[in-house]
Amino acid sequence: MKKIGIFDSGVDTPEEIILAAGFVSHRLFGDPTIEPDKANEHIPPTHCVWTRNLLEQAIKGLDKDIVGIIATHGCDRTNREFDIWLKCINLDFMFFLNSPFKRNKIALRFFIDDMKELITQLEDSFSVKVSSEKIKKAIILMNKVRSLLMEISEFRSKMVLKGSEFHALVKEVQQIDKNKAVKLLEAKLEELKTKKPTINKAYKKILLTGSDLDD
């Protein structure tokens, strides 16, 4: 299946709309194995390393199945860098989704209007129909994914699942077909239910903190 890439420093991109349009939602993550040499030609090297890394990946070529990008306003860097993507990256579809910081009625109406515009542009660009029924089905599917992740997450406190293992799982399901993600998560949940806690007094819990953009 074709994919729509998600360029989002938060979790505001409505994946349900992407699914309802018949695409796989594919969140873009940083690649620590590359240097942003080409990106540095467009953005000062003092700017956010994550956004420069994604631009570098895009310039070199994203996954061949990615036919479009939705960039969501999570910070000033994602906002301004989208202009560079428009000039430098050749994709069938590119859309900037405004995500308001406020949570009042005016902001809600603004966000709804922008999501409606996203639907319109997806329909026009790919000759698809994003119906209310398709969106409802996509919401059910995405909520199933989120529910399974929440249930699996509880096994970390039970010393059954490592934080690094959960992190890898979260990343994986954000880049694959969500029906496959449900099957993957259901299988993982059943596996965890059969495992015993790791009891080793030599193990110490360590809190890692820092930017939420570190992949």
From TrEMBL:
Ranges in a coiled coil: 175-202
Keyword annotations for this protein? Coiled coil
Sorted alphabetically, which InterPro entries does this protein's record hold? Answer: FldB/FldC_alpha/beta (IPR010327)
Q: Which Gene3D superfamilies is this protein grouped with?
A: 1.20.1270.370, 3.40.50.11890
- One Pfam family per UniProt: HGD-D
* Family the UniProt entry places it in: Belongs to the FldB/FldC dehydratase alpha/beta subunit family.
This protein's name: 2-hydroxyacyl-CoA dehydratase
Q: Which organism is it from?
A: marine sediment metagenome
